[in-house]
Amino acid sequence: MTKGTTVDSPKKAPKTFFVQNYGCQMNVYDGERMADQFAAQGMTSSSKDDADLIVLNTCHIREKAAEKVYSEIGRVGKKRKQANGAQPMIAVAGCVAQAEGAEISRRSPSVDIVVGPQAYHKLPEMIAGVAAGKRGLDLDLPGLDKFDVLPKKRKSGPTAFLTVQEGCDKFCTYCVVPYTRGAEISRSWSALIDEAKALVDGGAKEITLLGQNVNAWTGEDDSGNAVGLEDLIRALDRISGLARIRYVTSHPNDMTDGLIAAHGDVEKLMPYLHLPVQAGSDRILKAMNRSHSADSYRRIIDAVRKIRPDIAISGDFIVGFPGESDGDFEDTMRLVEYINYASAYSFKYSPRPGTPAATMADQVAPQIMDERLQRLQQLLGQQQYEFNRSVIGQSCDILLERKGKYEGQLIGKSPWLQSTHVDMPGLKIGDMVRVQINEAGYSSVTGDVLMQAAA
Ligand code: SAH
Ligand code: SF4
Ligand code: F3S
Questions:
Q1: Which regions of the chain are under pLDDT 50?
Q2: pLDDT at residue 9 in the model
Q3: 302 alpha carbon to ligand 1 midpoint, in Å?
Q4: Contacts made by residues 417-420, CB under 8 angstroms, sequence distance 24+
Q5: Is the C-beta atom of 59 inside 6 A of ligand 3?
Q6: 171 lies in which domain range?
Q7: Is the pTM above the cut of 0.85?
């Protein structure tokens, strides 16, 4: 049920919209689906400066996220006033909406709608409510309803996201996701195959399967057999017109033998695995409730590399979790040295309201966190650079995704997810080109086009 309170000055029904995404790829996917939904209703997309409806699709993973949203709301209102424009209808969606709820409307009277990440299919109804003078709040976590009511046809760029799984049951002690996204639920086999085909028909050549724990996806295939993510990947491998499959983010505990095996023989599955470990000390992993050890993580990576030696390994790290000693941090550094990452994301621990770690004793001093993060990032950056250098001289396919800085330059992704710059007249976004990598930097590589690949 959409709840509402009456406001004095109703805003007009919007004809144009702008969706601003923060946070993870799942929010990007949700933002695209919201846009699909608005377009199906006859609204057109516009810029933040003149849209009638602005959706802030927020993230709550680390601190200051909520503060950023409040200042953005203030900025939008002020800019419109300066331009003598009408105030836009403002909807706060996503994980801050779920976590802060009605507090947002109380603090920011210009917010008309607060909608949680599992309820955005109710937006049209809520928008109509606002135009009739009723502010809207909907923070239900109704599972998968949102996917059922969204438009089925998909227009896509060369790369597309497809959310296969929502929510998280892992309850790592530092993390808000289980509270903001709800319990782990998998979308159905048939819905996913249909949507993947619709994306390919709409122009996608690469699909990245998404989930907070994407490899926890389970389902039943058309014959009623119990299936896992590897089976879904194998089914997508058979869709003609689709050239590449990726998936993100995985949890070490759901890294099954079947999924590892898929990296060895599914041709379209790209040689890239994002497998967050967070820390290298078993004591800290236990306090984080990660339920894997540094050693079990190492064994998974060893097994994947045995099957796919060139695979690019990526990870996430948190430094300065409560109680992390110098020795614990050295364990993280040792693990990083062992794994040798191709890329990684690393963060200072950020206490999140309502999570168990926020009230743990022995919070680490900010200065120590800074020093540790700097050392870790230096090592990870060096490894990334070495990985980028290791592909110099190799030939590989690049799927061109966007324009570069210079006239004629295009940027795409290598199989190992490296940003790759190419420069040759006549190429366009969406082309798959055969390239020889000839130069490497810290965050990208450059290639010479050999020929247009068949895809
Ligand atoms: N489900 C994924 C990732 C979820 S959030 C997983 O389990 O790996 C993305 C990343 O944000 C996490 O991997 C973690 O490194 C980081 N993160 C989550 N909560 C955090 C917090 N409270 N402080 C700092 N980093 C955090
Ligand atoms: Fe958060 Fe842990 Fe779930 Fe990842 S597995 S989303 S870090 S609770
Ligand atoms: Fe952020 Fe929510 Fe994603 S907290 S990382 S937007 S699941």
A1: 1-2, 6-8, 455
A2: 52
A3: 23
A4: 417/246, 417/270, 417/272, 417/312, 417/314, 417/342, 417/343, 418/312, 418/388, 418/391, 418/444, 418/445, 419/443, 419/444, 419/445, 420/444, 420/445, 420/446, 420/447
A5: yes
A6: 152-270
A7: yes
